[in-house]
């Protein structure tokens, strides 16, 4: 019997939002208040669970200006929304974005551990460094730290959070009514962290969950981001798969970096976000895609674009002439996304209008019939370009509904995707190894040395 | 027709915990893991909602040591637990404790506003300053700020949070699919706070909820705490009503201070926590009370007591001789509680054992038949000693179940308590005035001046 686990496709969905296009809220079939409607989040989560998806994902950001596009202005905060979703689902993983800038690692560790406990081991943390200048101004600062410093802070922050999640061994809480023993204090551990950026004593006042500790996602695509992810993350929220060779190179690079840290290829999973539009015919799919694309207003699209360049004022450029070189604007903000947009504009000699519409509307890479979509997803998975996909519906809830009803059954028939959940925890469903408590590891190592 | 609103009794319940006695977890009828069981929180919330209670309350603290008693070692974090409860209830108010020390006002404002939005206007914040030395050591510090500085910080913090909650006027979000207008930017306001302790630009990325903004609770009993509460709080989580004249003096003092700030008596509501044990006969009630009291171990009780004195080591005193004067220990921690315990010990010439058991077990003030309990509650309410009560069940869920089934109907028959919720929001049910957005107030004032 072979010991090799067969690679399994993973599926996930954005729970928030009104659609991948920034003006999809205008479509008659979508609730225009979805970003603040917990009913919409719960509906998306239940659809995802019906489809046996691995997890629901909530992105985040906080800084807004008069130029922010609709989606950003008012939105549910991830940890509250996921806790509400937890109470109304049973198997879906719950991935929330929380920043490592301008927050306290003790509080972040605690809220995630509490979500993990109350959901029965389904929580995950998408750790981001925060990318907008204005973020600092909501937290007593004036400027964002520069890119590489943000990553050094994030690194130490993640170490602290994981350390706090090991405050208790798995079986520390005895709760024996007969003997009166509530806890085994030998299984309580105090972190006593004193680092460059943080001082955190511990222990955390939360026992471990059935999955040991929450899963960690990272989204960085820069050199620093890749290295941190390869070392610390269980999963990566990666960029677009529009450029397949580039996505494959990224995939291989991450797995290679992880191997250098002694990790197996299946201990770090890579998930791009994609937008799927399904039709019974190619024509129907294309019509649905166009129907939403046409809602876009170029002025709103330019505002959306400028967010990725620290709210750079694009109005100085004519709408329909080729864009000049954009230099290094955006280098300390959403670095990789800004670079991607600059490269696309340069390579295609795009005008401002073309770049803005490109940035504000999902690509048409996954527009087609159920069989066409299933074929493309299968190919990207089998070619090791991705480990799975996070669906950003082109319209909520229709985009997800169509996918669950029409594409998931095909993926199941092909033996690519589960027909039932394998486990009650997110870690179990993702097939990730159980994280042995660091203090138990140390004790085991000491014992082995002594033997 | 009279314009005077009849005073209405308010009822609430602690959602967390295994019982008011620190060792109630050993009782056969209670789930020993209640502090980390969201099912237990939800069960308590549903019972409270069945009883038409105004709100459920979650207390909090984070710093633990080897000497912490069971309840503190591992517990759900309030904002996550309340969000899960929100998704499984429809009318119950949701009061969460969050500290103004070692946290970011923007994040606190946002999480509470998000809970408020997703619950349809049922959130409240119990703002505390944090009272344990070790709290600082989990957040990069060494020592807690001294008591009055903590209150100055809390004061500015609450101002910032309320300011952020006014970032948007009530009707700022238009979301008109026909015209394409998502928001009216004239109704967006930027706080631009630069104070002694905090710099927060804003706006908050969350629109107002149906109750305008979350309710604010305060729990301080010191001079600084009373003044802050009288000025800023909608409600107070007050101390014990064991000493009725002292509780009445407190009630009058708070209402007098509020009046000095131009507030009506019914704009600030006072809620002590009480433990009720109901029996069909007096004997049965006493038997139930004794059954739980007997679970107490004096060593655990001493550990519990020491927490209110910054983990002072009481083992230096003999168990059964009168305690010496305790001097000023505890003055920078749970100041008012420590003072209360010292006074009780002095007045009664108590031994360490007596004081520890007193601190660790609820008083027997509300042990009796349903009629006896209803009589006592009615008296305290009508004598203006309290505006309502927060029930800390002697056993979860039995204590709450008994009260809802046997005492609530009596209070309803007497016309003291509602038989149906009056409103969908916590503010509406508590009869508190709607908070007009500060920027609208300013505009109205300017218009009045011009007219």
TrEMBL record, chains A, B:
<feature type="domain" description="Luciferase-like">
    <location>
        <begin position="29"/>
        <end position="383"/>
    </location>
</feature>
<keyword id="KW-0285">Flavoprotein</keyword>
<comment type="similarity">
    <text>Belongs to the NtaA/SnaA/DszA monooxygenase family.</text>
</comment>
<keyword id="KW-0288">FMN</keyword>
<keyword id="KW-0503">Monooxygenase</keyword>
<dbReference type="InterPro" id="IPR051260">
    <property type="entry name" value="Diverse_substr_monoxygenases"/>
</dbReference>
<dbReference type="Pfam" id="PF00296">
    <property type="entry name" value="Bac_luciferase"/>
</dbReference>
<protein>
    <submittedName>
        <fullName>LLM class flavin-dependent oxidoreductase</fullName>
    </submittedName>
</protein>
<keyword id="KW-0560">Oxidoreductase</keyword>
<dbReference type="InterPro" id="IPR036661">
    <property type="entry name" value="Luciferase-like_sf"/>
</dbReference>
<dbReference type="InterPro" id="IPR016215">
    <property type="entry name" value="NTA_MOA"/>
</dbReference>
<dbReference type="InterPro" id="IPR011251">
    <property type="entry name" value="Luciferase-like_dom"/>
</dbReference>
